[in-house]
Specification:
By secondary structure, the protein is α+β, with helices and mostly antiparallel strands. Among the domains are: 59 residues, Structural Genomics Hypothetical 15.5 Kd Protein In mrcA-pckA Intergenic Region, Chain A (Roll); 105 residues, Pseudouridine synthase (2-Layer Sandwich), CATH 3.30.2350. The chain is 21% helix and 31% strand. It contains 6 helices and 18 strands. The strands form 4 sheets. Strands 7, 8, 9, 10, 11, 12, 15, 16, 17 and 18 form a 10-stranded mixed β-sheet that branches. A hairpin with an 8-residue loop joins strand 9 and strand 10. It is elongated, with a radius of gyration of 22 Å. InterPro entries: PsdUridine_synth_cat_dom_sf, PsdUridine_synth_RluA-like_CS, PsdUridine_synth_RluC/D, PsdUridine_synth_RsuA/RluA, RluA_PseudoU_synthase. Its EC number is 5.4.99.-. It comes from Senegalia massiliensis. Responsible for synthesis of pseudouridine from uracil. Keywords: Isomerase, RNA-binding.
Length: 297
């Protein structure tokens, strides 16, 4: 019996139970959704001991279950780019995103985005999948960006981001923050103008933890952990408290020392998709935030 090698398109699982329903097994082992299970059945992409699944929906001890994902076409233009990949496995890629670059193409900006660079990287490395961004960062925010290589990995990582992933940011803010640490629990919603987000009692629950890293005369360096993922959450919360991020022209004011908001996603801890091993990623501060700190401290 020849079992195909695991890859971004193939997952192999060994059955240890004496007898179990296939759907129950996949749900226990992979947290596979009913929707994806039905899709894989419809596509005939589930195999038992490298034989196509028939009407037998029970599996037995030492059976090898193979799941295959369909090849996909990317709709975005591939573009060679110097991506700073800080982690990769068969399911995800982690990129340390530079500032001043869009993550995803738009109608007015169809290329020169991180997605265009990933499409090129996928093509070069025979990863025949769509680009699935697990998280997004604003154009002017730098730091760790996660990309999934298949639909299953995207669903599993998205669930972690909603519930139990640990993500931290560094921000350089205006003024001296007095408390050493604290929790900002203020609801956020879109403003009537539709451009900015605002703190409003009618908004969605938004929780940000902060801790002072260092204080200087007129600025504070903060480490922040977001427990909810609202648009512009950190920027809105800090501005509302009177400590806008330096260089944030939307929620504060422009700076002579940096051309964008001094916000960087520097830490991420998650469980690897297939074996649940804990992965901890860290990203150094980019050059412009380091230069800002040297100028204003």
């Amino acid at each position: 019996m020849i079992i195909p090698k695991e890859s971004h398109n193939i997952i192999n699982l060994k059955v240890e139970e004496k007898e179990i329903k296939l759907k129950v097994f996949l749900n226990n082992k992979m947290n596979l959704s009913s929707r994806l299970f039905k899709k894989l059945i419809r596509q005939k992409n589930i195999f038992i001991n490298n034989k196509p699944l028939s009407n037998e929906f029970y599996v037995y001890s030492n059976d090898i279950i193979t799941i295959k994902f369909e090849k996909e076409q990317n709709v975005y233009k591939p573009q060679e780019m110097d991506l700073n990949i800080i982690y990769e496995d068969v399911d995800v890629i982690a990129i340390n995103k530079e500032p001043n670059i869009l993550v995803h193409p738009t109608k007015n900006h169809p290329q020169d985005t991180i997605t265009n660079g990933i499409v090129y990287y996928f093509k070069k490395n025979n990863i025949d999948k769509k680009v699935r961004l697990v998280n997004r960062l604003d154009m002017d925010t730098s730091g760790i960006l996660i990309v999934a290589k298949n639909s299953y990995a995207h669903g599993q990582m998205a669930e972690q981001f909603r519930n139990n992933i640990i993500k931290k940011y560094i921000a350089v803010v205006k003024g001296v923050v007095k408390e050493n640490k604290g929790i900002i629990n203020l609801p956020i919603m879109k403003s009537r103008e539709g451009i900015k987000q605002v703190v409003d009692k009618s908004g969605k629950e938004s929780i940000t933890e902060f801790e002072v890293v260092e204080r200087f005369k007129d600025i504070t360096i903060l480490s922040l952990k977001i427990l909810t993922g609202r648009t512009h959450q950190i920027r809105v919360h800090l501005s509302y408290l009177g400590h806008p991020i330096i260089g944030d022209s939307l929620y504060g004011e422009e700076s002579d020392f940096i051309s964008r908001q001094a916000l960087h996603s520097y830490y991420l801890k998650f469980n690897r998709v297939r074996d649940k091993k804990e992965i901890e990623l860290k990203s150094d501060l980019p050059y412009d935030i380091k230069a800002l700190i040297e100028k204003v401290k």
